[in-house]
Amino acid sequence: MRAFILERYGRKHGAHIADVPEPQLRDDDVLIQVHAASLNVLDSKIRDGEFKLILPYRLPLILGNDVAGVIVRVGPRVQRFKVGDEVYARPDKDRIGTFAELIAVKEADVAIKPKTLTMEEAASIPLVGLTAWQALIENAQLRKGQKVLIHAGSGGVGTFAIQLAKHLGAFVATTTSTANVEWVKGLGADVVIDYKKDDFEKTLAGYDVVINSLDAATLHKSLRVLRPGGRLISISGPPDPDFAKELGLPGFLTLATRLLSYRIRKAAKRLKISYSFLFMRASGDQLAQITSLIEGGVIRPVVDRIFAFDSIGEAMAYVDSGRAKGKVVVKMR
C-alpha cells in the first residue's frame, strides 16, 4: 500500500510517499480503508523529533493522527463494528499512521462517523475534538457560567473548543489575528483579543480556565488572567511530572519533566493556580459523544483546505506556516 513515511527526524530531511506492507490486524482491531486524514501540528512535531524521547517511535514511521474511512476487515474479538461501517478515529499514540491507504486501529479507539459529515469533514475532528473534550470536560470540569480563555481561536483545537465551551454554558474569550476576529466571533466567542493590537493579559481578569496551545511566554502571561483556584491547561508543554507518571516514563525522563515545568508550576502555585499538561488520549467512547453533538448541530467542523494525497508534502508545509483556519485534510480516495 502507499503511505507517507518518515525515515529520519527533521524537517529538512522531510518525509515521502512510498510503498509499504499492509498493517497487521490484531484480534481486537478493525482494518480501516482510509478515505481522508487530517493534519495536525502534532504531526510536524513528531516529524521534527520533538517527542522522540517520550514517544520513541521506530523509524521508518507512517505519520498521521486522524482518520475517516470504511472498515474492510475485523479481528475475531471485535464486537461493536462490522465490515462496511463508516468510522472515524484518533489511533492510540503508539499506533499512529493514518497517512496511508489502510490502518489497523484498536476497536476501543473507533466511533461511527457522524452521518451529517463528509469523510473529509469527519477526518478533521478526532484529535482536536478529543483534546478539547479532555481539556474542558475531564480536566477543567468546566461549568455553566464560568469564564474560559482559549488561545489561538482560529486553530484546529481552538475552533472546536470555542464551540464546546459555549455548549457547556461558559463565557468564552479567545485570541486571534486581526483577519480572524469576526470569524471566531461567529464560532461563539464572547470576547476576542486581537493579539496584533492588544495584550490579552492586560485586558482579561478573573478567569476560571485557560487553555494554552502557544509558546512559553503566552503560558506565563496566562497566569495573570486567572483567579486564585483557576486552572491553566497547556497542550503545547512543558510536560509535568503527572504526565510522566501517566505514561510510565523512566526516572530520568520524569526528572526531566519536573525540571522543564518547574518554573511554570512554581509561578502557578504562588498564585494558587493549578497547572497541568495535556497530551490527549484516544477514546472511541468520547468520540461517540462528540458524534452526538455534531449530529445535533451543536458543533460543526472547520476545514480550511483539502489536498490530494500526492500533495501531502505541500499540505504539511501549509500547516507549518501557521495560516490555517481550522483543519487541513488530505483526501485519500
From TrEMBL:
InterPro entries: ADH-like_N, ER, GroES-like_sf, NAD(P)-bd_dom_sf, Quin_OxRdtase/zeta-crystal_CS, YIM1/Zinc_Alcohol_DH_Fams. SMART domains: PKS_ER. GO terms for molecular function: oxidoreductase activity; zinc ion binding. PROSITE patterns: QOR_ZETA_CRYSTAL. Residues 10-330 form the Enoyl reductase (ER) domain. Keywords: Oxidoreductase. Coiled coil: none annotated. This is Alcohol dehydrogenase zinc-binding domain protein.
